[in-house]
């Protein structure tokens, strides 16, 4: 435990690439729709990117905003920024100008590279690579900021999580110790580097000297075929992606291509048990690993792959070298089985939010004994006697209705237990409207509500259910409940104008309204 902490205090983000190059220079490193590089080639292009950045006047500590698709070129540029001692600020290409303006104002970058710049930028980097040009060496410290990850949240202002090299290195090696990426693994990644889930997949692949397949731009219809044809062995998922893979696998005709997937790793929200069972059925021998975390410390717990079928309600054990505490409202540590706020402690806890001292002070608080920063997640859960974590819900997921405290997660889980319901999203009540459930289902709304009443206490049965052909999702594949809430608010507001295309459902809606008694 101490060894891991001491080792990562000397590590830099680009150290993972340099070690992979030294140990396996000709091993495949990264593949996308246009080709593949070895670790030697990726390292060469990253050094060329560092030289190109120096030519553009980028210095130690400068922020570099990059809004590119996730390709081999973006990975090389990320490592080049790290070598330069600058701060990599990856943004989703789908980010609108309004939000981009906010990030740029907050980060104050010296360089902003959008998709329109990508071809010219890469042509310059290739010229540096062809000429063998190298940048002047830059002194980079593990305590330097390596990445700013901008996350969505409850505030309108951009919220950039500050990620130094040392914290990133510790999280990468600690997660790698549990998941055990291998040099024969092929990691099939659909997620952008702008989300830390995609970013760390690149680093974990380097750490394991695995190959990563960047498949975010590929058609959903080709998804299962690509998993088979690329020889994927590790597939990171979120519930929406897992459901898609399971559905495609059910419809798949017999194929001669063998299954090589040995592990699915889930994050974002809990996987329905039915989806887990389908993945195990169609990918024989694959483990389905549950994880829990936040960008502010990357990962909090992982269920060890070999224990994936044990304690199905748990989200796993704390990462090696870290601690999880459960605290009550007064900050008192609670015992096994007691529900309180989940607090993470360890070398993976980031120092805070970029230029947001008030937000930082709220979430990152010193340990009253050691003074080390601890992350107060705002999520609730409990630990059992053996230290396994059980997630109960987020602060924003929890609410009171009819005098009873409840969570959107338990209602969604009950809805997903109903045969014929494929996806579910709950919108909590407000003073103006009651609890509402949205589902993708082969059932009429009143049937869903009737089945819910058989599974939940009367106070927890929503007053109405709406069936959509497809639930809206965020860029990270989570339920876009804010979009659904805006739709409901627009309908309940006095003399409300028709909902705009941005907030209205894109598919026909079937609705049923009921009381708990009617649902029975």
Automatic annotation (TrEMBL):
<dbReference type="InterPro" id="IPR042099">
    <property type="entry name" value="ANL_N_sf"/>
</dbReference>
<dbReference type="InterPro" id="IPR050237">
    <property type="entry name" value="ATP-dep_AMP-bd_enzyme"/>
</dbReference>
<feature type="domain" description="AMP-dependent synthetase/ligase">
    <location>
        <begin position="20"/>
        <end position="354"/>
    </location>
</feature>
<dbReference type="GO" id="GO:0016878">
    <property type="term" value="F:acid-thiol ligase activity"/>
</dbReference>
<protein>
    <submittedName>
        <fullName>AMP-dependent ligase</fullName>
    </submittedName>
</protein>
<dbReference type="InterPro" id="IPR045851">
    <property type="entry name" value="AMP-bd_C_sf"/>
</dbReference>
<dbReference type="Pfam" id="PF00501">
    <property type="entry name" value="AMP-binding"/>
</dbReference>
<feature type="domain" description="AMP-binding enzyme C-terminal">
    <location>
        <begin position="410"/>
        <end position="478"/>
    </location>
</feature>
<dbReference type="InterPro" id="IPR000873">
    <property type="entry name" value="AMP-dep_synth/lig_dom"/>
</dbReference>
<feature type="region of interest" description="Disordered">
    <location>
        <begin position="493"/>
        <end position="520"/>
    </location>
</feature>
<dbReference type="Pfam" id="PF13193">
    <property type="entry name" value="AMP-binding_C"/>
</dbReference>
<keyword id="KW-0436">Ligase</keyword>
<dbReference type="InterPro" id="IPR025110">
    <property type="entry name" value="AMP-bd_C"/>
</dbReference>
């Amino acid at each position: 435990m101490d060894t891991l902490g001491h080792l990562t205090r000397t590590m830099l983000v680009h150290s993972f690439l340099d070690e992979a190059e030294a140990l396996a220079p000709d091993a495949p490193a990264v593949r996308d729709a246009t080709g593949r590089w070895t670790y030697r080639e990726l390292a060469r292009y990253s050094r060329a990117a560092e030289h190109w950045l120096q030519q553009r006047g980028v210095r130690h500590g400068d922020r570099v905003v990059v809004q590119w698709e996730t390709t081999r070129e973006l990975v090389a540029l990320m490592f080049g920024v790290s070598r330069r001692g600058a701060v990599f600020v990856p943004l989703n290409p789908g980010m609108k100008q309004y939000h981009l303006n906010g990030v740029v104002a907050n980060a104050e970058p010296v360089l902003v590279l959008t998709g329109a710049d990508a071809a010219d930028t890469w042509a310059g980097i290739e010229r540096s690579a062809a000429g063998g040009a190298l940048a002047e060496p830059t002194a980079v410290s593990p305590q330097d900021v390596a990445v700013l990850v901008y996350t969505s949240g409850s505030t309108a202002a951009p919220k950039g999580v500050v990620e130094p090299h040392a914290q990133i290195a510790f999280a990468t090696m600690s997660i790698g110790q549990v998941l055990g990426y291998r040099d024969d693994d092929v990691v099939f990644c659909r997620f952008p580097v702008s989300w830390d889930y995609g970013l760390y997949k690149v680093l974990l692949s380097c750490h394991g000297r695995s190959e990563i397949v960047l498949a975010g731009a590929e058609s959903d219809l080709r998804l299962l075929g690509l998993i088979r044809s690329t020889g994927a062995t590790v597939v990171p998922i979120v519930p929406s992606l897992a459901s898609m893979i399971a559905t495609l696998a059910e419809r798949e005709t017999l194929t001669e291509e063998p299954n090589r997937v040995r592990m699915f790793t889930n994050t974002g929200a809990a996987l329905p048990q039915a989806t887990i069972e389908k993945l195990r059925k169609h990918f024989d021998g694959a483990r389905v690993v549950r994880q829990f975390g936040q960008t502010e410390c990357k990962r909090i717990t992982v269920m060890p792959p070999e224990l994936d079928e044990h304690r199905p309600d748990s989200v796993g054990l704390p990462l090696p070298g870290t601690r999880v505490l459960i605290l009550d409202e007064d900050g008192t540590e609670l015992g096994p089985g007691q529900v309180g706020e989940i607090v993470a402690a360890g070398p993976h806890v980031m120092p805070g939010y970029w230029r947001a001292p008030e937000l930082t002070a709220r979430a990152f608080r010193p340990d009253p004994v050691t003074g080390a920063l601890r992350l107060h997640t705002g999520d609730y859960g409990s630990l059992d006697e053996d230290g396994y974590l059980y997630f109960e819900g987020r602060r924003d997921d929890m609410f009171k209705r009819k005098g009873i405290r409840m969570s959107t997660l338990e209602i969604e889980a009950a809805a997903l237990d109903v045969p014929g319901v494929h996806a579910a999203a709950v919108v909590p009540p407000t003073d103006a409207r009651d609890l509402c459930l949205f589902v993708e289902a082969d059932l009429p709304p009143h049937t869903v509500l009737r089945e819910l009443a058989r599974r939940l206490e009367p106070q927890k049965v929503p007053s109405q259910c709406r069936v959509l052909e497809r639930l809206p999702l965020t860029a990270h594949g989570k339920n876009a409940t804010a979009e659904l809430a805006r739709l409901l608010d627009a309908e309940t507001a006095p003399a409300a104008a028709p909902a705009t295309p941005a907030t209205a459902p894109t598919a026909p809606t079937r609705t049923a309204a009921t009381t708990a008694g009617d649902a029975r």
